[in-house]
């Protein structure tokens, strides 16, 4: 189960909500809500019991559940301006990763003609097989502007 509470008017409001939810006994927003766990109450059940009270006390506009089983019902219900969305869950898309280059035989730096070992820079143009050391490519890209530290762009040495 995942729960997203979002739509706060500012970052400060979101941080205040987060702090109040993590420290309900110390929060001034929940003084009348008896922010103590009931005997035998699990921490997640206590947090879900405090959530609607916090939603009534803080400006928030969206509550999104991502769960494969039926989502818990909140008591009391959230305020009418809070949009409660549910998503049945399922497989989440995996984060995108840079493609791993195929293992190849060690290549030679296009500029200094020494073997390229370790991290190297390759030309992004399709079909170009230029491979360079960063220490060789930086002066090539800087050209006449030797006062700069890092090049922003340049042309492929091939």
Automatic annotation (TrEMBL):
<protein>
    <submittedName>
        <fullName>SLX1 endonuclease</fullName>
    </submittedName>
</protein>
<dbReference type="Pfam" id="PF21202">
    <property type="entry name" value="SLX1_C"/>
</dbReference>
<feature type="domain" description="Structure-specific endonuclease subunit SLX1 C-terminal">
    <location>
        <begin position="109"/>
        <end position="158"/>
    </location>
</feature>
<dbReference type="InterPro" id="IPR050381">
    <property type="entry name" value="SLX1_endonuclease"/>
</dbReference>
<keyword id="KW-0540">Nuclease</keyword>
<dbReference type="GO" id="GO:0008821">
    <property type="term" value="F:crossover junction DNA endonuclease activity"/>
</dbReference>
<dbReference type="GO" id="GO:0000724">
    <property type="term" value="P:double-strand break repair via homologous recombination"/>
</dbReference>
<keyword id="KW-0255">Endonuclease</keyword>
<dbReference type="InterPro" id="IPR013083">
    <property type="entry name" value="Znf_RING/FYVE/PHD"/>
</dbReference>
<dbReference type="GO" id="GO:0017108">
    <property type="term" value="F:5'-flap endonuclease activity"/>
</dbReference>
<dbReference type="InterPro" id="IPR048749">
    <property type="entry name" value="SLX1_C"/>
</dbReference>
<keyword id="KW-0378">Hydrolase</keyword>
<dbReference type="GO" id="GO:0033557">
    <property type="term" value="C:Slx1-Slx4 complex"/>
</dbReference>
